[in-house]
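ingest -> fold -> write
write: protein_1
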Amino acid sequence: MFEYIPQGVCATKINFEIKNGIIHKVIFTNGCNGNLQGLSRLLEGMTPEEAIKRLRGISCRNKGTSCPDQFARALEKTMKNNKG
């Protein structure tokens, strides 16, 4: 299970798993509960690359980031740290 502390959004923590190149068990702590539950369910079974492509750059309330964008950043960091 990976843990990421997002910056500049209402969610305070994102936990997730990547098994065999597929995203599983995405859990956002705090934030917009209904929206983040929906996002978590949609991400289940997706590849990290596809999720990054779809979520990177989404902004919420002119913050320049959002919970989906922060998840994309979490995936990028996880993939970078687990290469090789």
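write: protein_2
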Amino acid sequence: MAILCTTDQLQSGEARGFEVEGTRLVLINHRDEFYLYHNSCPHRSIPLEWMPDKFLDVEKQYIQCATHGALFRIEDGICVSGPCVDDHLDPVPFEIKDKQIIAQLPPSIPVENV
């Protein structure tokens, strides 16, 4: 589990990137509902933004991949335009407790020397 921020720190129409233990995430507040995804375009497995926290299209209706312009619905992460149509962003489970947004990340798996 990782506390990302509080609900008051991300206004409607805003998105913010986080990195937790090497995992890149994008948190979006869309119409006062929160959505959390892995920050990785399914087309090339690269981060979605080209500048920090610039994840949304101009109208703030879609998540936009800065590399190829793919558009993803905020509500479910489905790609509706671009090179990965019908693919999707990977959602990350989270909870809101006492206004804190807490990502439910899987535990790190130690790498053993072989």
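write: annotation protein_2
Residues 2-103 form a domain with the Rieske Iron-sulfur Protein fold (CATH 2.102.10.10).
The mean pLDDT is 93.
pipeline exit 0
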